[in-house]
Every structure is written in C-alpha cells, then in structure tokens.
Amino acid sequence: MWPHETYRPESVVVGARLADGEEVVLKASGHRSGGAEANTLRLAAAAGVPVPPVLDEGEDPRLPGGRWMLIRKARGRPWALPAPNVRASARTQADLGRVFALLHACKLPGYGPLNEKGEGSYTRWSDFLRQSLTEPLRFLHTGGHFDRELVTRVENLFSSHAPMLDSRPGVLVHGDLGNMEIFVDRRNRVVDIVDFGDAVVGDPLYDFAHFVRGGPSDDPRSAAILPGVRRSYAAHGGAEPRNWDQLFWIYDIFNAVRNAEFSVRVDLPWVSGLRNKVDQLLDQTDDCPSLR
Where is the secretion signal located (predicted)? Predict the structure, then answer.
C-alpha cells in the first residue's frame, strides 16, 4: 500500500497492489461525498470518457466523510508538461478536446456539486459561483491580501451578471482538470481521466477556464495548450458561444480568487500575482460592452 499526495486535509487517497497483481486506489473525502464521486465516474464512463471503473464503495466512520470508493488505478502515466515540450503533445490536446466534448454532451438537472443522484445541488448556476467565493474572499480580505474595494468588485461582478450566467447550459464538467489528472500512454494518447471530486453541473466554459490553471498567474501551460484543445473540441461538436472571451474572463477571476486562497493556505508565493490578475481581469470586464 502507498499514500497518494492530496492537498485537501480532509481527504485520504491510498493505492494498493492486490495479491493477483492488480493495482487499485481507495479514496475518501470530507470535501465531497465518496458516493457522489463514484456516481459521477459512472456518468462520465457512460458518456464515453476514459475513466477508471468503480470496483466497490461503502461506509466507514473512521474515514473522512464516512464514505469510500475503490477504483482501478489509472493506466499510463500523468501527462508531463515541461515547458519546452508543450507543443510536442498535439495528440493529447486532440484527445482532450474529444474528452471535453463527451463530458459536455451529458446534460444534467440543477447546477453545482453533484449529489448521489447525479443532480446539481443548486437551482441557479450563479448561486453556486457566488457561494463558492464567499469564504475565499473573506479569508483573503481578513488576511490583508485583498482590500475591501477588490472584494466588492468581485462580488458585484457575479451579482450583476447573474442572469447571463444562469442562462448558460448545465452539463457535466470536470472542474479541476490539470496535467496530473490526465493519464497518457507512450504515444501521448489519453487513456484515463481521474479525480472528479470537484465535478459540477455547470457551464462548459468553466472547464476551459480551470484547465491546467491551478498555479500562479504567470503559468504558461494553459495559454500554450488551450488553443489546440479548443480546435479539437469544436471538431468533435463542442459548442462555443459568441461571448466566449467575456465568460472566460469571469471564470478566470473565479479561479484566480480560489487559487489565491490556496496559495496563502499552503504558503506558496502566488498571491500577489493572482491579486493583480484579478484586478486586471475586472478592468477588462468593465471595458467590455457586452458585459455592461
């Protein structure tokens, strides 16, 4: 048995090799129900997305959240993204566009985190987004990282554009797809997608704004990879709204606020750059006629 690294203190992820040589992973989380994540994996598999199958699930009060699931270990290896080799993975980018198109073709009721019935927990998409920012903004303001004016501008952005956000479709989105959640074979073909603990019912663009964007403000990976993924997404039937850029900015602000909170909590030197990014993106949205 061996532990897997996790950044959530309320999670346990343990790998094991069974007597017959099969390798499995047990996961339990106080952040999201293990039963809900197991069901989300089944939804993704039914949509054609390559994911490890759920082998078993159950309850144990000693584990975070009291629920666990057992899955097959992901095949292949995590998609490594050293900066000089980013452009050499066109096959992976093409496969990821197809993965997103398959996920986003899965329409579900409600919005926000999925329950064990495969439904979103919120009636409105904007309610989920605003509530998800309440604690990060409070934490960043109390710690002196975001001033009151910046916090108010972020809150006003999501309140004033709630009708536009609520008009977006509700589909299955991974919500946290980074290169360590993408497993590839020797030919860089995607063979497994893992970690659906942050999956939600929401706007497809939410996935693109979170794609490989869990780092500092100057992380070059997303800008280098996303165009290829988008081209493949469109080729596989993924729909792109005319106000893609404007929606992307809004979700990029959402992501940057949460990354800033994370960086402070784990003592990473990202908060200054992410704060400046939020400020700049707010200026862009203020100057955009379609968002007034």
Answer: none
